[in-house]
Amino acid sequence: MSENTTDQFFKSTVLGHPAGLFVLFFTEMWERFSFYGMRSLLILFLTASFTDGGWEWTRENASALFGSYVGLVYLSTMLGGYFADKVIGFRWAVVVGASLMTLGHASMAVETEFSIYLGLVLLVFGNGFFKPNMTSIVSEMYKDRPEKKDGAYTLFYMGVNAGAFFGILLCGYLGEKVGWTYGFGLAGIFMFFGMLQFWLSQNIFGDIGLKPNKESKAKAEALDTDKRNPFSPIQLAAIAFSSLLALLWLLNDPASKISGGKVNVFSFLGPNGNSIAIVSALVVFIILLIYRFTQYSKITKEKLIAVTFFAFLTIFFWAIFEQSPNSLTIFANDYTDRVLTGNWSVVFLVMNSLITILPLVIITWVLILLFKQTFKLYAIANIILSVSFIIIWAIAIWMLAKDYYTAGYLSLSDETLQALKIDKVTTALTEVPATWFSTLNSLFIISLAPLFSKWWESKYNPAANLKYGIGMGLLALGMACVAFGASGIEAGAKTASVSMIWLILVYLFHTMAELCISPVGLSYVSKLVPARMIAFMFGVWYLAVAIGMKGAGMFGENIDKIANEHGLSYFFWMLAIISIVVALFSILMGPVIKKLMHGVR
């Protein structure tokens, strides 16, 4: 067999894949650790009382800021992707992104008003540079081994979910049980470790991701033989106008609410200035999108319409799914009975120990395999990675020891308690952290992803519209569970003690919904969109995700208004009904969209 350009990476393998994949695995794991760790705490921190170290914001203001933050995170990926492709290369983009995120988490750990806002800004830009470019390196590494790519992405996303799980588990625990600074700070420490090990191991990627030069640009242009359809000056002006309005709206929406109207760049448009601004931006962009579609052949145009249809559905999916760090975390914190006694306390402690230790053992085993292949060439990077795992093991064991002690199943001397920085307790108590429930999403993904993958590869693989319909139906089922659980909470109640089982069911059904929709959507973009338009349509896709993320914040903003008037259950039933309507719409549109896809499955 003649050697391909990427065969060099397969000369040193771990579990049948290039060692470089696992450098990316651990870098992405620490980035997701930091992102999800901080995200799980943000709403709780903003709404916590002053005596608990929070800012005592209303849920409306906290959700407004949260929605704009996660929306901007996805919009910024277009900026980061552009700079990586055209200016600095994938590697520098990853390092710049990781550095900005490290500074962002450090800034948030200071906990002043200025430092929190500065931290969020740094995290937005950091995610923008980091997020799109890790997968680009994976793709380049496997471009001559397409048969290995599915397995590579499976391993890579295991790293994503492992990072999300441990970030929520440990940062959430420290933030809730010890102090917000510790939760925010831990997220930054591991982002820093991830950045260092990536930078020190970068030669393992050969020429992939280096800064573009004249030679590489010429080579790329020679490979791209597609006919161009460049943007005219008027179209570029329309993009600039809608982008500027949307950006100002994302920033102004929370600012105007938090300041009580003192800060409002759209005040000249009247009391509904925010709404006028964003509707204007969307109308201009939609007109531009429709016009661009008319410039292509009938088949290409119809495929693009199909992608846009799926992007539209994706808005609703993320707007409801992303209630996890928002209204569902509020529900867990204020309305769920999280205190366990007797046998249930033992069951939780044992289960929590298993789901903490077993993944750590598996990932540590992978780390040892990586050491065997790369330690001679990248000793310092491996030492840094091992130090990060020693710290993770120490925090995990400390967390479990603290839980067993506070539950009354472990006796510790006063000297030991002082050394471990554990407060002495006189009454045994097992209380599940509110952020713990968010870890279930990662656990269920790791457990269920192989089953769904087998389903998609079988003869029973549903059509695209049916997958979306099933996903939105499962989303509705999850929201129906929590709505039913909240049915006994009276209108206006600020606290309650609902069973935890309803939240566990929510995360189970929502994870299955995510497996039906999230990976499938991006797959259809790559299948349906011509190469010359892939960047633009990925931009449209991430715009849809950003709108969905902001939509999640807007739903969350109204939780108190709806709960005070109709009860909390009404709020979740409303989300369930929206989900089921979108599910039925997707299924009913199946024959139309199938025709527009021209045989693509």
Automatic annotation (TrEMBL):
SUPFAM superfamilies: MFS general substrate transporter (SSF103473)
Top-level lineage group: Bacteria
UniProt topology in membrane: Multi-pass membrane protein
Record keywords, A-Z: Cell membrane, Membrane, Peptide transport, Protein transport, Transmembrane, Transmembrane helix, Transport
Record Gene3D superfamilies: MFS general substrate transporter like domains
Compartments, record wording: Cell membrane; Membrane
Residue intervals passing through the bilayer: 33-50, 62-83, 114-130, 151-175, 181-200, 234-252, 272-291, 303-321, 341-370, 377-401, 434-456, 468-489, 501-522, 534-555, 570-593
Pfam families, alphabetized: PTR2
Predominant place of localization: membrane
Keyword Transport recorded: yes
Family, per entry: Belongs to the major facilitator superfamily. Proton-dependent oligopeptide transporter (POT/PTR) (TC 2.A.17) family.
Name this protein carries in UniProt: Peptide MFS transporter
Organism: Flavobacterium algoritolerans
